[in-house]
Amino acid sequence: MKLEVLGCSGNVTRRHRTTAYLVNDKVLFDAGTVTEVLAPARLERISHVFLSHIHLDHIKGLCSFAEELSMRDEVRSVTVLADENVMGAISRHVFNNYLWPDFTAIPNKESPIVRLQPMDPVEYTTIGDLRVKPIPVHHRVHTTGFLAKEGEKTIMMTSDTGMTDQFWEAAKREEHVEFIVAHVAFPNRLSGLAKTAGHMTLSVLLDRIDTYGLSHIPFYIAHMKSMFEKEIRDEVRSAVRPNLRVPKQGEVLFA
Among residues 89, 28, 110, 36, which one has the least CA distance to residue 67? Predict the structure, then answer.
C-alpha cells in the first residue's frame, strides 16, 4: 500500500497545503489539496474520495476537482464516500448551488460528476484490494478517522480529533498496523485551545499511545498549524520517541 502526502498542514500559508492523502494513486482520503498538486493525468486516476468531515481544509480541493472534471471533453464522475452525517453536510453546505455548484446533479442526476455514497459504519467499503472503515472521533463537527486495509496490512488516519477512545481501541485490536497518521494541531502550552477546537496536542497523543499500548507502531505527526510547526517539531524531538515522525509534504509512505 502506498500513501502519498499531498498536503499535511493544519492551515494554508505560503507553501503549506492542507490535508489530503492519496492511496495507491487512485483513492483520496480528504481533499484539502488536489488540483494544485496533481497534473491532469494523475487527476484522471482518482476514482474515490473519502471525507472525514465538512471543514474547509479537508474538502476545498474537492470543489476544484469536481469543476475540473466537469470541463473535460469526456465527462466522468468521482465517488465521494463518508459517514452518513458527513454526507448530509456535504449536500447541505457544499454542493448546494450557493457555496458551489451542485455537481451531484451536473450534468444530470443520473450521471453526475460527484456521486455521493454513504459508508456503512460497521462494514468495510471495498475498492479493488482496499478495504476502508470509518471510525467516529471527537471534533467540533461530526468526524471520522479511517482504517484502511490491503491484505493483512493496515494503515490508520485519525483525522481531526481531540481526546477520543474508539479510534485507539480499534488500533489496539488490529494486529498489522503499519503506521498511523495522527493530527496534532497545537503545542502543549495551548492545551485549552486544542480542547475547545477538538484537536490533539502532542501530550494528548502520547497519552493515547501509552494508555492503549501502541508505542510499537510508527506515528506520523500531521496537521500542525503552520505558526506552531517549529514548536511542535521541538516537542516531538524532546519526547525522544523513536516511533514518532513528522511527514513531509509530497512524501510517499509505504506499508
Answer: 36
Q: What are phi and psi of 207, to 5 degrees?
A: -60, -45
Count CA atoms within 13 Å of residue 196 on its CB side. Answer: 4
pLDDT by residue (tens digit) across 98-145?
999 999 999 999 999 999 999 999 999 999 999 999 999 999 999 999
Dihedral (CA of 227, 160, 164, 235) sign: negative
Cα–Cα distance for residue pair 231/16, rounded to 1 Å: 16
CA distance 128 to 45: 13
What's the chain look like in SS3?
CEEEEEECECCCCCCCCECEEEECCCEEECCCCCCCCCCHHHHCCCCEEECCCCCHHHHHHHHHHHHHHHCCCCCCCEEEEECHHHHHHHHHHCECCCCECCCCCCCCCCCCCEEEEECCCCCCEEECCEEEEEEEECCCCCEEEEEEEECCEEEEECCCCCCCCHHHHHHHHCCCEEEEEEEECCCHHHHHHHHHHCCECHHHHHHHHHHCCCCCCCEEEECECHHHHHHHHHHHHHHCCCCEECCCCCCEEEC
Residue bearing cell 503549506: 16
Q: Which fold has domain 2-247+250-254?
A: Metallo-beta-lactamase; Chain A (3.60.15)
**Contact, 130 vs 22, CB < 8 A?**
no
* pTM greater than the 0.90 cutoff: yes
